[in-house]
Design brief:
With about 800 residues, the protein is of the alpha/beta class. It has 30 helices and 28 strands. Strands 3-4-2-1-7-9-10-8 form an eight-stranded mixed β-sheet, with helices on both faces. The two termini are about 55 Å apart. Bound molecules: adenosine-5'-diphosphate (ADP), aspartic acid and magnesium ion. The site of aspartic acid (ASP) has 13 residues, from helix 9.
């Protein structure tokens, strides 16, 4: 014999039931088959609601009954040929009438006992099993309907009754051995329902039809138990939480039991025990894809290389902690705690005890929080009064995360990897437990972190194909736009070459915010952004924190201080920050240092290569030198693409172009800050040399840098247009600067210089210099930057970095490279 169990969605509609019929017809060709069914999907919930409404005196219960009735009548009409319908329709109506009179009773009494609730809820399985039985009859397939209530005997713990295994097993065996029953090839039985010694209907707990299947299978020593559901087997994680969850072809009873105990809903936890004892293989199969092999659960764990079989989680948990000095060394404390909970039928899901015996901590269902507190505080009342023990501490909104695999005991480092990956993603672990059999490691974390945690763990332990990174961009102007286009072009390559799946999940400009946690379609992001809702930077950050996506990277391609001010908040939640915005790194040293240390503390990246010289590898090189033990003696640099452009193009007016006109051209070509005085006045160069000096280890501030500027003071007054007008007036001044240099055969360059004596004394200055043809700086064209590092390892001839130091395209590519660096940490 074999047992096939079909769940709610497998019998949820006439269409689905037709698929069940086909599967069963094939099965009975091979062997006599017991088919166990759940209620049609949603019906158990509806029945529970019905019982609640009726007992609360709410007339709406009548509508619920009508809906339930309609659903079943529709199924009958769709499944049975017209001439065969009437008997089944009236059977359904009769059952519904019975349900209705029960509800009338509840409505009058205004009271709902657990016993009545079980009675009401049992109609779901009764209806589905009888309709499916009638469907087989109508097809001429002989079947016997078996009343599970008569065979499966339980105690009277309604809603979650405990099965009397011995009696049940005897009942089932003698039923199937009876000559009246033993000649059938097909038996139809309702799942979930049973009865107590008095004959009252009981139920086996939500999801209990799986268990019913196992009980029949064990009693008749079936060749197999097949659990038919809506997924193609047990998966490495809940597919609703992890898009990329993978089917597990084979798993051991122990592993399946652990996974289901810790929340894998695909199989109800008590199901495994009875079949495991008889060594009956269990298949998990998909009714909607019957040819898929599914999962086989059997005695041994497969001897493959997967030492982690799956990850599961239970969301609504509360953590109870009993603490106190009075607990140390006194035997019986934990027993009293467990007894107090057991007396109230409170199920303990997880236990941890610190070795100091100072505290013991258990995880229970969130619904049991209040009862637990009352029960435990009452049990320890005396110790609480004498301050030997603290009143029970209840932590809500926590969840359990479990990593399961029988082979993990042979693989050191699993928990290191697990907690490392959680830590890197800013997920705080509140409690840890590992079974001594080492089949699982469990962690208690905040409920809000569950989805992220499951996904990062899944990526770490199962993802062979790629790592997903979630990018939020702030700033969608010139550089931001180029960045998005560059990423879009590289997505396929990165996935293939680096196994990185870059998902842009947020794009914001100063007004609008486009968010899509599944990844924004980049083909028309501009239109989508234009149509997106408005929002502030604060709201953008709130969304990022609330989404709590794994491997999140915030990219600042703005020049705003409001954006630079949010980095700390993000880094503290392990969100990496990539910035081309210079404001944060050139703010007071204390703030710069704080951001760097937050990034270290929370395992996030804080990268800003494009703060100096666009995408030229300047900061990266400097970091490499320092990390490998070099020390910087001197940095000399031409760091302003703008000033370079201006002094390369200004010919002292000999070509008819005034200094002001050259500056205007630089602005038109996009090489200047919106207010060009930031460039021409030297401030921008000061910021850059300061950032380099800081990265070289100096605690320097803007006020430590000498600025030998060349702009007359009058140029700093008024608006940008006033500035251009004033420059025209001062043309003679600029011409004089040019002529003096030209007379010496020199060019003008705005040079930044930082020097360190190695003993803590440093100097930094920026200013216009006459550059001889023999200098590295002389042959610097267009908007190129040049940096010379003189160091312990490069004492005479400096290390030289040269190339385009401005422009939207190169800046975007530098930001992109930082994103990839952050992603690969
Ligand atoms: P049925 O009604 O057939 O009993 P359930 O809803 O009880 O089905 O269980 C199947 C569901 O379990 C799947 O649709 C899936 O969403 C969920 N599930 C949770 N964890 C897992 C897992 N590890 N593997 C497969 N399914 C899982
Ligand atoms: N119908 C019951 C429930 O929804 C039992 C089951 O489906 O297994 O919990
Ligand atoms: Mg189920």
């Amino acid at each position: 014999m074999q047992v096939l169990k079909f769940g709610g969605s497998s019998v949820g509609s006439a269409d689905a039931i037709s698929k069940v019929v086909d599967i069963v017809i094939e099965s009975i060709q091979k062997e006599p088959t017991i088919v166990v069914v759940s209620a049609m999907s949603g019906v158990t919930d509806q029945l529970l609601m019905l019982a609640q409404s009726a007992s609360q005196g709410n007339e709406a219960y009548k509508t619920i009954i009508q809906n339930i009735e309609q659903k079943h009548l529709d199924a009958v009409r769709a499944l049975l040929p017209i001439q065969a319908q009437s008997a089944t329709l009236s059977m359904v109506k009769q059952i519904i009438n019975e349900l209705e009179s029960n509800c009338e009773g509840l409505f009058m009494l205004k009271e709902l006992s657990n016993r009545m609730q079980d009675k009401i809820v049992s109609y779901g399985e009764l209806l589905s099993s009888k309709i499916i039985a009638a469907t087989f009859d109508s097809k001429g397939i002989k079947q016997q309907w078996v009343d599970s209530r008569a065979l499966i005997k339980t105690n009277s713990n309604y809603l979650n009754a405990v099965v009397d295994k011995e009696t049940t097993s005897k009942n089932i065996q003698s039923y199937f051995a009876h000559p009246d029953h033993n000649q059938f090839q097909l038996y139809m039985a309702p799942g979930f329902i049973a009865s107590d010694a008095e004959g009252n209907t009981t139920t086996l707990g939500r999801g209990g039809s799986d268990y019913t299947g196992a009980i029949y299978a064990a009693a008749v020593k079936a060749t197999a138990l097949e659990i038919w559901t809506d997924v193609s087997g047990m998966m490495t994680a809940d597919p609703r939480m992890v898009h990329n969850a993978k089917e597990i072809p084979q798993i051991s009873y122990q592993e399946a039991m652990e996974l289901s105990h810790f929340g894998a809903k695909v199989i109800y936890p008590p199901t495994i025990q009875p079949v495991m004892h008889q060594n009956i293989p269990v298949w998990i199969k998909n009714t909607f894809e019957p040819t898929h092999p599914g999962t086989i659960i059997k005695n041994e764990s497969p001897s493959d290389t997967n030492f982690i079989r799956g990850i599961s989680s239970i969301k609504d948990i509360c953590l109870l902690s009993l603490e106190g000095s009075g607990m140390v060394g006194i035997p019986g404390f934990s027993k009293r705690l467990f007894d107090a909970l057991a007396k109230k039928h409170i199920n303990i899901i997880l236990i941890t005890q610190s070795s100091s015996e100072h505290s013991i901590c258990v995880g229970v269902n969130a619904n049991d929080a209040h009862q637990s507190k009352l029960a435990v505080d009452a049990e320890f009342e005396q110790e609480i009064n004498t301050q030997k023990v603290e009143p029970l501490i209840v932590e809500k909104e926590v969840a359990i995360l479990a990593l399961v695999g029988e082979q993990m005991k042979n693989h050191p480092g699993v928990s290191g990897k697990m907690f490392g990956v959680l830590g890197r993603n800013g997920i705080n672990v509140r409690a840890i437990a590992q079974g001594s059999s080492e089949k699982n490691i469990t962690a208690v974390i905040a409920s809000a972190d569950v989805k992220k945690a499951i996904n990062v763990l899944h990526e770490e332990f199962f993802e062979t194909s790629y790592k997903q990174v979630n990018v939020y961009i702030a700033g969608a102007g010139n550089v931001g736009g180029k960045l998005i286009d560059q990423i879009n072009k590289q997505i396929a390559y990165l996935k293939k070459a680096l196994r990185l799946q870059i998902n842009i999940v947020g794009i914001a400009n100063s007004k609008k915010q486009l968010i899509n946690v599944e990844g924004i379609d980049l083909s028309n992001w501009k239109e989508q952004l234009a149509a997106a809702p408005t929002g502030t930077t604060k709201e953008y950050v709130a969304t990022i924190l609330e989404n709590n996506l794994r491997n999140s990277i915030f990219v600042d391609v703005t020049a705003h201080d409001t954006v630079a001010n949010v980095y700390a908040q993000l880094l503290e939640k392990a969100v990496s920050v990539v910035a081309c915005n210079k404001i944060a790194c050139s703010s007071p040293y204390e703030n710069y240092a704080k951001l760097k240390s937050l990034a270290r503390a929370y395992n996030a990246s804080f990268l800003f290569e494009t703060n100096v010289g666009a995408s030229l590898p300047i900061i990266g090189t400097l970091n490499d030198l320092i990390r490998s033990g070099d020390s910087i003696h001197k940095i000399e640099a031409v760091l302003s693409g703008t000033l370079n452009f201006v002094f390369n193009n200004y010919q002292g007016g000999t070509d008819g172009q005034s200094f002001a006109q050259v500056v205007r051209q630089a602005q038109k070509e996009g090489y200047t800050e919106p207010d060009p005085r930031l460039d021409l006045g030297g401030t921008d160069v000061m910021r850059k040399i300061m950032i380099l000096a800081r990265e070289a280890g100096s605690k320097i501030e803007m006020s430590d840098i000498v600025n030998e500027g060349f702009l007359p003071a009058s140029c700093f007054d008024g608006t940008v247009e006033d500035f251009y007008a004033e420059m025209e007036k001062q043309e003679a001044h600029f011409k004089k600067l040019y002529d003096r240099a030209a007379a010496e055969g020199c060019k003008l360059k705005f040079v930044a210089k930082f020097e360190s004596d190695g003993e803590g004394k440093t100097t930094a200055k920026v200013g216009l210099q006459h550059i001889q043809p023999s200098s590295d700086f002389y042959h610097l064209y267009g908007k190129d930057n040049l940096v010379l590092f003189t160091s312990m390892r490069y004492p005479e001839l400096p290390l030289v970095i040269k190339g385009a130091g401005a422009g939207a395209d190169v800046t975007a590519s530098g930001v992109f490279a930082d994103i990839i660096r952050a992603a690969r940490v």
